[in-house]
Amino acid sequence: MRKSSMRKIGVPAAATVVLLATAAGAVAASSSSISAARPAAVKISTRTLPKLGVVLVDSTGRTLYMFVPDQRRRVTCVGTCAVVWPPVKLAKGQKPIAAGKVKLSLLGSDPNPAGGRVVTYNKWPLYTYVADTKPGQATGQALKLNGGLWYVLAPSGKVIRTK
Q1: For the chain, what is the domain count?
Q2: For the whole model, what pTM was predicted?
Q3: What 3-state DSSP class applies to 137?
Q4: Long-range contacts made by residues 18-23, C-beta under 8 angstroms, separation at least 24?
């Protein structure tokens, strides 16, 4: 009887070891997928554009704009405006990072009335323009649309008003 009793105990013990090893593997896999799923930073960089000089661009090279009615205080381009001029959004846990001639000290973020946060530069919320379909375009420069004027920014944080 003792043999069969050992046998019964032996199988569950082996199963316990397998289950523990499987659980440990699942926890390790879960931990690595959590760190892999962490949001990446939002990169703000620079690019030289004809007639405008060095301006801010996003990670895909699309020109970034500021909106005069924001007055370096808050995001005012919402609703239909934000469809035409999508703000540069930060997902929860994301940070803006500087590349090129961008000054990290001028990067920040403001609350987005639509939820989340928007990247700022020298306190100006940053936006792209849907009519800029490829990197290097600045068709929104000095454009009066959606309730105000739109301009690009220099790495110094200065508004470039050239048409």
Answers
A1: 2
A2: 0.77
A3: coil
A4: none
Residues 115 and 76 in one domain: yes
Residues 99, 12: Cα–Cα separation, whole Å: 57
Residue 102 vs residues 27, 58, 99, 159: alpha-carbon distances, Å? 40, 11, 6, 14
Across the 163 residues of the chain, what is the mean pLDDT of every consecutive 10-residue run?
Answer: 47 40 40 51 96 97 98 96 97 94 97 96 98 97 98 98 94
Q: Which residues contact 115 (CB under 8 A, 6 or more apart)?
A: none
Q: Are the CB atoms for 38 and 127 separated by under 8 Å?
A: no
Residue found by looking up tokens 């301006």 in the block: 55
Q: Which domain holds residue 120?
A: 42-160
Closest to 45 (Cα-Cα) out of 112, 119, 118, 111 = 119
Other CB atoms within 10 Å distance of the CB of residue 86: 15
* Residues whose CB falls within 8 Å of the CB of residue 60, separated by 6 or more in sequence, listed in order: 135
146/99 Cα distance (integer angstroms): 30
As beta bridge partners, residue 55 has 47
